[in-house]
Amino acid sequence: MINLRKNWRSLMLLAVLLVAVSLVFAACGEEEEAAPEGEEGTPKPGGVYNYVLSANPTAIDAVGVQESEGWQIAHNTLEGLVTYVQDESGGMVAEPKIAESWESNDDATVWTFHLKKGVMFQAPVSREVVAQDFVDSWNRATDPANGSYTSYVLAPIKGCTDSGYWEGKKGLTGVRAVDDSTLEVTLRYPFAEFAQTLGHPVASVTPVDYIEKIGAKAYNRKPVGTGPFMVKEWKNNRYIDLVKNPDYWDKENAAYLDEVHCAIITESSTQWLEFQKGKLDYSTVPPGQVKTVEGMPEVKNGEWTAKAWPTLSTYFYGFNMNNPVVGAPAGDKGLQIRKAMALSADTQHVISIVGEGVPLPATGIVPEGIPGYKAGQSPYAYDPEAAKETVAGLGKLPTLRVWYNTDEGHQKIAEVLQAGWKAAGLNVELENFEWGAYLDKLAKSQKGDESSAQIFRMGWIADYPSLDNFLYPLFHSSQSATMYTFYNNPEFDDLVVQARQTTDATQRTNLYLQAEKLMLQDAPIIPIYYYRDFRVTNNRIGGFVHDPMYQTHFWELWVKE
Questions:
Q1: Contact at 8 Å (CB) between 157 and 175?
Q2: 182 with 115: CB under 8 angstroms?
Q3: Which helix (H) or strand (E) is 80 found in, with range?
Q4: Which of 66, 187, 270, 301 has the highest CB neighbour number within 10 Å of its CB?
Q5: What architecture (CATH level 2) is domain 55-262?
Q6: If one looks up domain 310-532 in CATH, what number appears?
Q7: CA 424 → CA 40, 288, 420, distances in Å?
Q8: pLDDT value at position 24?
């Protein structure tokens, strides 16, 4: 059953919006190689790193984190059973963190996690983490009274619903502490990649007894976790200061820095000015200035590094599949319109002109860097002549409506695509709405009537690094309302469900790829590009990496000078 009550994924897309506003696009895959000894130098303790957040986070505790800015803080202060790291291929994979190891039964419905001993909560809690803390933390995360927008990550657990909330008064009946160091999790259905999803902040361990003592509001301002940094102070719309956790349990991964100052600056032009003044060690770049920055003396002489960092995210245009003109009710004619629009979408022009060459061409919904990624999944590569032939065979068509959220970058992209569609013989009108109104209008588009969306721009950042995360929550019929396509293909649903239940990794990947290809043939979306995140860093800092999930590992950084 489609649930429109809870549009958690819509709010996660705020992260995409913040990136796209400055046209600093993102995609996936590779990690910058570590500099040779002598170039980077030997890490040493001490110093302050001056980071920048592009928005005031909605929240920085596990339950409330919604967007990349909040996730960045949580990433360095909170921890869960697993953590995400890049492997040699550039893909993000789950590795043990608080969990020592785990295993599942044959059908992947019962998971057992063995916890490391000696994992400590930060001060003022200062006690060892036990399995019951995960039981309490996950129950808090999925409690409907707390309204988490990301609790869907825990939805497979018995006692939860597809919405990510438990019902009734029993909570998550599928989670229990066998003993202090053993956590048993029973799922509602087989899910072979369950452990891979648990690196999301919502699955972090938190001291629920302490939260109940001081209150959720106070805790969100200064959350206590188990990570290498602690929150010192959060001044709304000004900054968040982190300090080194002096009692961090994982000594091999303890922080070098004494403090990280995270200035909150929403305008990329202001960030860039502050960086040039030396007040920031890291910055986005204003629209249209990528080539200029790449040619600056400070970049040429190595004082700064300017780089397009791969990320796991995709920019696309979606179709309302309930719409009688472009959607499923129109039958083959609707498919032919979607096909023509895909064939005439000049994505290379978008990338080279609007994006200054930073994004990468998208040939599917799944970006490079996701384990199992396969290029060329979409059957509708750019072919304007084929698009013209398709449109010519459709007879007279009504004017098509394309929506995007108000932003100069989205407008330029829409105008480039509009030109390609017009050349193919399609009449397309553009309309934009402020972000809040945009999401509200999309959410009300299920009926597919004239007040509903027909075609709209959207994007997706990975919540967990898996093929599943770009297929199940976006296009499975039980979930697709939250991506506003309202896509419904039983064959696709069956393939995704089979993939989730398949424990053999090769077979699982093949099923997911079959599902992706089938969905792209149906064309409920047009993939436009894979984001890359163009950033400039001050090389007084060593160890900097901006990973494909938009995170910087503050504990790996040190001040060279």
A1: yes
A2: yes
A3: none
A4: 66
A5: 3-Layer(aba) Sandwich (3.40)
A6: 3.10.105.10
A7: 52, 29, 6
A8: 41
